[in-house]
Design goal:
Largest sheet: 6 strands, mixed
Distance between the termini: 28 Å
Radius of gyration: 23 Å
CATH superfamily of the largest domain: D-tyrosyl-tRNA(Tyr) deacylase
Structural class: alpha/beta
CATH topology of the largest domain: D-tyrosyl-trna(Tyr) Deacylase, Chain: A
Shape: elongated
CATH class of the largest domain: Alpha Beta
CATH architecture of the largest domain: 3-Layer(bba) Sandwich
Number of domains: 3
Length: about 375
């Protein structure tokens, strides 16, 4: 899926001399599909566009998204984005998607954008259209879902070549890292699982370690508490109280994951900064100290501060604004979808660390790895 995004002051599309759609300030989208595109591509692009921060704030900086400025979208189908121009002078469009499928995807995409509350005007799929706009800036941004970062860039020769060129060009390399703690920097899950099992046993129940781990990794501790309590007919607050009593007793000195220190060190070496954003209390700082990682962090937000939980971006926005972080070079690193969603909600990239491939990915991370060492490539 290809989308060209143009920030516009005004725009309209006409068919047979009649205006079909018009907007004032907002985005003009040129949208193309190829065979194989589906809901995952729609979700990824819709999220990117709705959270794209290219509108000026009170200080004149590109810092606001289209919803924050009350903008609208003019969406135009554009199969010519898939033109093949390497041979001869007459482009081929055989790479464009099947029109029947592309038409359905185009309609679904527009509905998905509109469901966010943004006004969406459209042209007509397959029609001969005349589009006029005033490009504001100009600001023009391209999205190609085939070029999302993921673990596959190392094993797919086509993607590998693409990303090598990107890295040589210095594109999208990051130096401002915002980190989750549990399951990302430190392997706290073994003690967490034991604590949960003990809390369940105290109430007269049992739960296997692997089931507990999967519930925590794929969802959250809170989800596990509510689900198990519901199965037994308990008040989940009682289960939480037991877990919170046992976990600090069992969580002494969690080990850092392989590669964690190397990435943190490289971020500092290139002039960047590391920040911590965790739902754990001040014990997080003690655990980082014991793991030898505390000295790499500029600042931290913990449960001691009154921010809502991820994926709400409030805590991340606090850190980003406090330290005047360049969001184009900032990334949230975490082990669950809610970490990536929090990053995206704050207008920054998200890198998913999924060490055991347990996560059903719904958050469209820009990078997905099973080894933190793989992130070294993306630090500059």
């Amino acid at each position: 899926m290809w989308v060209i995004v143009q920030r516009s002051q005004q725009a309209q599309v006409s068919i047979d001399g009649k205006v079909r759609g018009t907007i004032d300030h907002g985005f003009v989208l040129l949208v193309g599909f190829q065979d194989g595109d589906g809901q995952a591509e729609l979700d990824y692009i819709a999220h990117k566009i709705l959270n794209l921060r290219v509108f000026s704030d009170a200080d004149g900086k590109m810092n606001l998204n289209i919803q924050q400025v009350g903008g609208a979208i003019l969406s135009i189908s554009q199969f010519t984005l898939y033109a093949e121009t390497r041979h001869g002078n007459r482009p081929s469009f055989t790479a464009a998607g099947n029109p029947e499928l592309a038409s359905k995807l185009y309609d679904t995409f527009n509905q998905q954008l509109a469901a966010s509350g943004v006004t969406v005007a459209t042209g007509e799929f397959g029609a001969d259209m005349q589009v006029s706009l005033v490009n504001d800036g100009p600001v023009t941004i391209c999205y190609d879902t085939d070029q999302r970062w993921s673990k596959s860039w190392k094993t797919n020769p086509v993607l590998s070549a693409f990303w090598l060129l990107q890295l040589l060009a210095g594109v999208n390399e990051m130096r401002e890292f915002l980190w989750d703690l549990d399951g990302t920097l430190l392997d706290t899950y073994p003690a967490m699982v034991q604590a949960f099992q003990k809390a369940v046993a105290e109430l007269g129940g049992t739960i296997p370690a692997d089931t507990t781990y999967q519930l925590m990794r794929q969802q959250s501790v809170g989800y596990a508490e509510r689900m198990v309590a519901a199965q037994y007919g308990w008040d989940w607050h009682d289960l939480r109280a037991g877990y919170q009593r046992w976990e600090p007793q069992l969580q002494h000195a969690p080990a850092a994951f392989a590669g964690a220190q190397a990435v943190l060190e490289k971020v500092i070496a290139v002039g960047g900064h590391n920040y911590l954003m965790t739902h754990r209390d001040e014990s997080a700082q003690a655990y980082l100290q014991r793991a030898g990682l505390a000295q790499y962090f500029t600042d931290a937000v913990t449960a001691a501060q009154p921010f809502p939980r991820k994926p709400d971006p409030a805590a991340l926005n606090y850190l980003l604004n406090k330290h005047q972080v360049d969001c184009q070079r900032a990334v949230m690193v975490g082990d669950r979808n809610l970490d990536i969603d929090a990053g995206h909600n704050a207008g920054i990239a998200g890198y998913l660390f999924d060490i055991d491939r347990l996560i059903t990915v719904t958050s469209a991370p820009e990078v997905q790895v099973t080894d933190l060492n793989d992130l070294l490539t993306f630090v500059d």
